[in-house]
Design goal:
single chain, 176 residues, alpha+beta, Aminopeptidase, 7-stranded mixed sheet, 5 helices
Length: 176
């Protein structure tokens, strides 16, 4: 199976949102309650600014979207267009960490290198812009991949949602 990648476009938004929803609903079941999975849709999702910034990737297998994910040079650590509290201010690569954002794998392509490829692409691009470390907010399902790739756990917390359901996340960091 050959994985290919490209920069996501605004025309990909609907397909990426569908993939994200499927990934949240199917890949979080071992880690979250049904209520937390539903609340996760508020916490997670696509920040279309990443697509506009050209820092978001689509991974494909034979033309089929197998995953998507990206990085950001902006302060927001996680969340989609619908999430309150996002901060589009630019980071300073000399002192701030690049943000790894919105990584999702289609359930048919898990454990086939999609997430690792996204992380490599993000790391290369962020390094090219002068960043020396990266951070992310991991879901429980994502923690094993990020640990395997060299990220270290820094802080566990429960993200409060407007639905009154808390969603567990882990801040993780890595030197790049």
């Amino acid at each position: 199976m050959e994985l290919t990648h490209r920069i996501a476009t605004l025309e990909d938004l609907d397909a990426m949102r569908d993939l994200m929803s499927m990934a949240i609903e199917q890949l979080q079941t071992e880690f979250l309650t049904p209520e937390q999975i539903e609340a996760s849709k508020y916490v997670m999702g696509l920040d279309s600014l990443l697509v506009r910034d050209r820092t978001y990737f689509v991974i494909e297998v034979a033309g089929e979207m197998a995953g998507c994910g990206g990085w950001s040079r902006r302060k927001t650590l996680f969340g989609g267009d619908h999430t309150q509290g996002r901060d589009p201010e630019r980071l300073d690569p000399k002192k701030d960490a690049a943000r790894i954002r919105a990584m999702y794998t289609h359930p048919n392509f898990i454990r086939q290198g999609v997430g690792t490829l996204i992380l490599k692409l993000c790391e290369q691009a962020a390094r090219k812009e002068g960043f020396t470390h990266a951070e992310l907010a991991a879901t429980m399902a994502g923690v094993p991949l990020y640990k395997h790739y060299g990220f270290r756990e820094q802080k566990h917390w429960m993200e409060k949602t407007p639905m009154g359901v808390d969603v567990p996340l882990v801040r993780m960091v890595k030197d790049i």
